[in-house]
Amino acid sequence: MLLEIKNVFKKVTEPSGEVITISHADNLTLDAGGQMLLTGSSGSGKTTLLHMIAGLLSPSGGEIYFNGKRIDNMPERERDLWRARNIGYVFQKLNLIEALTAEENILLAGYFAGGDMAELKRRAHDLLERVGLAGKKDVLPGKLSIGEQQRVAVVRAVINKPVLLLADEPTASLDAENSRIVLGLLRGLCSENGTALILSTHDEGVKQQFDEWFDIKGGRFLSHGHN
Ligand SMILES: Nc1ncnc2c1ncn2[C@@H]1O[C@H](COP(=O)(O)OP(=O)(O)O)[C@@H](O)[C@H]1O
Ligand SMILES: [Mg+2]
Q1: Is the C or the N end of the chain the one with fewer CB within 10 Å?
Q2: Ligand 1 atom closest to 44 (CA)
Q3: Residue 172: its pLDDT value, please?
Q4: Strand 164-168, strand 87-90: pairing
């Protein structure tokens, strides 16, 4: 088992002083190389849960294990290194660095993980070609369409061949055609590299394309469906 989540939750204090639970996962497991869909309406706690899995946010309670090792209480430095080596992340808001070109955004992620630069450049080139952006490698994110930016974010997230890829609503801002392309790309690249995938969505159409999913509602996993 690659990922095991035991009763993880995040509580926050409202300005009124009231403490509320904004995300809750009772029991979630994912095998190495597995692909999982995380569904739920807007505000149900998907992004919060993905941030906790990536170690970007500490849970208020519960335990997260990665390859049998507890990761939710790791010291920050160790956690940053663990994340760089194991996790790929396609952020809901992409988080591309506006001052860097498409290629530089991708290479920076590889640099942080300590990859060999010549090898990274070759891989970045191949991947950009594959997503139809070879001709736009020197373009700044602001000059790319949303669909193109989304594809740069996908390449950046897979450049290190992560063990686990977290993709937060990667199709939310795309039309049907681009949505299909990005989903196919994410799933195909993950299968090829043996990368496990957790993809969040509030789009019913995306659900039809997965065999199983976890539905997070009111900040809790309620159902585990099968198509
Ligand atoms: N730091 C925070 N403080 C207070 N409320 C938050 C914070 N982060 C998220 N929320 C709230 O928690 C809920 C879940 O957010 P989120 O995880 O972004 O949901 P989703 O990704 O499913 O749309 C939302 O109602 C959001 O407004
Ligand atoms: Mg979200």
Answers
A1: C
A2: 22
A3: 84
A4: parallel
Q: Which domain holds residue 180?
A: 3-226
Ligand 1 contact via 57 beta carbon (within 6 Å): no
24 C-beta closer than 6 A to ligand 1: no
Among 24, 156, 38, smallest CA distance to 89 is for 156
pTM of the model: 0.92
If DSSP codes are grouped into helix, strand and coil, which group holds residue 197?
strand
Distance (Å, rounded) from C-alpha 132 to C-alpha 135?
A: 8
CATH of the domain at 162: 3.40.50.300
The total domain count for the chain is 1
How do residues 115-165 score in pLDDT, each as one tens digit?
789 999 999 999 999 889 999 999 999 999 998 999 999 999 999 999 999
Q: 31-35, 79-83, 176-180, 209-213: which has the minimum mean pLDDT?
A: 209-213
The conformation of residue 103, written as its DSSP 8-state character, comes to H
Whether ligand 1 lies within 6 angstroms of the CB of 23 is answered as: yes
